[in-house]
Amino acid sequence: MLSNAYAVILAGGSGTRFWPLSRNATPKQLLQLFDDSTLLEQAVARLDGLVPRENILILTNAEQEAQVRATLPAHPAENILAEPEKRDTAPAAALGIGWVAARNPEAVMAILPADHLIHDVASFQTVLSGAFHTAQTESALVTIGIKPTWACPGYGYIERGTQARLPGLPSSLAAYEVVRFREKPNPELAEEFLRTGSFVWNAGMFVWSVPTVLAELTRCQPALASFVHDLRTSPELTTTIHAQFGQLPRISIDYALMEHAQRVINLEATFDWDDVGSWLSVAKYLPTDAAGNAVKGTLSQLRSHDNIVFSNQPTQIALLGVNNLIVVQTADALLIADKNAADEIKKIVDQVPAALR
Description:
- This protein has helices at 39-45, 65-71, 89-103, 121-137, 187-196, 210-220, 222-233, 237-244, 253-258, 279-283, 345-349; strands at residues 5-10, 56-61, 80-83, 108-113, 141-146, 157-163, 175-182, 199-209, 264-268, 294-296, 298-302, 308-311, 316-320, 325-329, 334-338.
- By secondary structure, the chain is an alpha/beta fold.
- The protein folds into two domains: 5-268, Spore Coat Polysaccharide Biosynthesis Protein SpsA, Chain A; 279-356, no CATH class.
- The two termini are 41 Å apart.
């Protein structure tokens, strides 16, 4: 276990993609989509034995704070913090950096999403341990990239250059110098990225030492650097956060920092990974009947193929002569959607009563 290693888990976000199961106060990382544990609980458990529990910090928002605390009742209460308002990933990362720096100004730290599905915990820990080692020994920011399995236009990409020779890194890990970050491409450009073999998906996992990232912020984002400095020396952390956070620029960590950093190293993930971006992603992990229906709940069907049915209610669901639907039932709402419209579910949320959002 690395005593000077910290992890900041970003557990905010909206609850629209998985409506009606998800709501504003319970986004996907707080849902039991696959078993009796939430994605947030899994994100914390994946760090056991690598990062001390007292060094695992959870950053959420005011609307979701109560549910996060209820989900993690044994987690140190002082290690759960809510942003006073939603900004973007760069202010959130800066808050996390300042939070860690106030505890250990020489720490190495990871910024990790709370809502990804990873089964191979041993490989995840090997890669993250290698990232911590690299951040500790190199004056560089470190990312973990996912080898693409298809030309996905919905992910950001990282373009890699030459292989990095890093003493002390296990031979099982591949490290590369990063050439640049690329935003979500159109389908044709995504195909080109895949053909070159030089691109990986940007999973939003970042590792760095506090001194290195603070030096980079000072160089390219002085407002964020000033915020980090103030947090590091503040006698009352939450007071400083509430006074300054809302004044920070709304900008992503990629735009604010990663695209301008002097040196970024990418470690390729050796573990399975899914960002669980929609009901289509969830369906891959549900039991499937002979007609190709992915089901959680109780279903009777006749001439109904390739549907997704998810229910947390005891109600019997029956499908007759319908194909390629998403059917999600909760105690107070029912969604029926074409699978091809999965990415538009967040749009229909704007049309439902506010009490159901």
